[in-house]
Every structure is written in structure tokens, then in C-alpha cells.
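Predicting holo structure, calcium ion bound.
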Amino acid sequence: MANFDSTTAPALKSWVDSANAADCEFPIQNLPYGVFRTANSAPRVGVAIGDQILDLAVLAEAGLLKCEAGVFARPRLNDFIALGRDAWRSVREQVSALLSRDNQALQGNAAVRDKVLVPQADAAMLLPVEVPGYTDFYSSKEHATNVGALFRDAKNALLPNWSELPIGYNGRASSVIVSGTPVRRPNGQIKLPDQERPIFGACRKLDIELETAFIVGVPNALGDSIPCEEAEQHIFGMVLLNDWSARDLQAWEYVPLGPFNAKTFATSISPWIVTMDAIEPFRTAQPAQSPEPLSYLRQSGEHAFDIQLEAQIKPQGAQKATTFARSNFKYMYWSMAQQLAHHTVSGCNTRVGDLMGSGTLSGPTRDSLGALLELTYNGREPITLETGEKRAFIEDGDELTLRGWAQGAGYRVGFGSCVGTILPAHPVK
Ligand code: CA
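Done. C-alpha cells:
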């Protein structure tokens, strides 16, 4: 049975009419946090409701939202997140009440109401958090198996350590960008099969990875670790993440220390952080784990979430996007709690705003593969788009979009979209 609370009950409706449509991604049950600005306003924190943004900075200044003074009139969410779980819960409950259909406190206050609701169409979304550290895991068994078969061999696709621990690597935080930011095709070293030495040039195998990520809300001190059973309490919320990948650079550089330039040029995230409270009703069982994990990775209960995911590609100038991957977050083998427990078991500290990628979330079927590398067998079998064009990998001008949502009865808790368009590489001198 789903766990509903006073903010997630399916029957809740808002006086913001657009939030009540069955296909709206931001119903009153969602209330994700983001940072936005308009032509007339500095960056500030808002909550998405229907096709509007509720301006929490103005709401707090008007005395209708109780929280630490000034925490929403800032260009990042880190200071609010650092206040901790009680503050997150309090603000969520206050915002839910203020937006509820029968509540007049804001609805009936025309002077404030007209100032605090900003059409999303009039706002620019910014990176919601300052990201002190970015880690990417590799926790989909299907993806790890497929990539292992393509980069090594099918017999040894899944290495023995994969089933014992959540494999991950420390990524690059400085190049985490918000959805909508263009992505420059990287230059780098490429080793062609018929040549002894690498060439230097533009990536020819540019790819996406369909992922989610969680954002650390409650940090741990250096030397301490986060027990698996407590780890979910340390998570503020989730976003969509596109781990842009240069497969030709990756194939040459990744042995022995893993990806470097193949991944560091850009990582896109969606602008709205969907909180753990909002996805709680969609909790479900994760895949069975065999062998049984070592004691520090054991957890009881259900730790996956039923979040549908899609990836689309649209060539420059095309009218229509092609959806080439339909997957689900619940396929992830290692849970977010296990990832965080493993990350800190050595005593590694985390910080508020740390971003932890899930790894590509491929499912068991061909249409659920979350990277072109897998879908086209490393480019050998290009896919045909709805425009008739073929794609082995991403071309300049292509627009890539990730989407995600948890489907409720008559409403959906959406993540919005994570979009990036590819710019041509800088000329090689
Ligand atoms: Ca990845």
C-alpha cells in the first residue's frame, strides 16, 4: 500500500486550476523546489504549481510562510536545504495548505496572490543548487552488462565486484549545468582501430546517459559514515540527470582509472528538485539482490521508486522528437540508500548539495536502453528517427530531452524535462 500523508493524498486539489489537470507534472502533491529569475527579479527560490511558480521569497516577506529569514531570496537552495528535515517538512506543509483549494489565506489575498505567482513561461530556471561534489554510480545491472559486453567481451561483461558494491566514480562538479544550457561537442584523443597512435579531434561518438540523481540534504562529517538504514533521511530530493558521454574518448582513456575527459565536459540536470516526501507514495520493491550484500549494505523494506523515464532526440529544425528509450527508476539494482552508505563507509564526508547520479537506467528490453551506445550496439545498428533520419550517435544541432514522472491515480508527480542541444566542436588547430 502506498504511504500517503497530508501533502500527498490523491484527492488534494489546488485553487491554481492548471495544477489539477491529469497530465500536469506539477500538481499539489508534487511541490518541487527550483531557483528562477524573471526580467524584473533577482534569482530566488520557488515551488512549481501547475504552469506557475510560487515565489517563496515574496511569500515569506509577506508573512505567509514561516522559515528562516531571507533563506529563499538567494540564488541557490543550499541554505534552505541546510536547515534540515524539520524545515523541509514545515515548508512543504505550509505551501501545501496555502495552495489547497479551500484555503483562503493566499487565494483570498489578491494583493499578495498576484505577486507570488509567476508564469513558468516568463521565468528562466537556474541551477537549483551549488554542487560541491558530483559522484556517478553505475547501478543498473542491464546497463553494466551491456556496456561490459561492448567495451570488453560478453563472457566477462559483469565483473565480480559489481554484485558486491555500488560501483561509482568521482565526477566533475564544475561542469554540472541546468537544463537548457547548450552542450559543446568535446575534442579529445581518439584511438582508431587501424592506427597505432591516437588522433586529436572532435568526438564522433557523442552519447547520452538517461539517469536520475539525488541531492544530499543532511551531510556527514569526515571520518563518519551513514548507515544504510538511515541513508534515505540524508536525501533532500531527486532530479533527472543526463551524463553526456564521448564514447570514443572513453574507450581510449578509461583503463585503468575510469572515465575522465569523456564525461567531464558537461552533465545536465533538470531544474526542479522533487522531494523524497513527494515520491514516497511510489515506493516499490527493488530487484532481488544476489549474493546477499555485506552487512553494511543490508536494508529491510522497499527502497526503489516507480518513476517512469524517457529519452527523446530531435534533429535541428525537425518538427517532431523521437522517443528512443522508455525505462524506469525501479530497475536500479543498488538503492540510493545503499549508494550513500557505500560512498561514506570509508569515512568520506558529504556536503549539502552533493549530486549523486544513479548510473544509466536501462531496463530489460531493447526499447528501455538508456544510452545510444547500447541501443545501436556502439554505432553498428543506427536507429531510424520519426523524421526518417538515422542516428548512430548524436549529431550537431540535435536536441536531447529526458523526462520522468511517477504516475498516481488521476495525477502525476513529474520531474519536468532535462534538455540539451549540441553545439559543434571548436575547430582543431
Ligand atoms: Ca553515467
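Residues 85-99 form the longest helix (15 residues).
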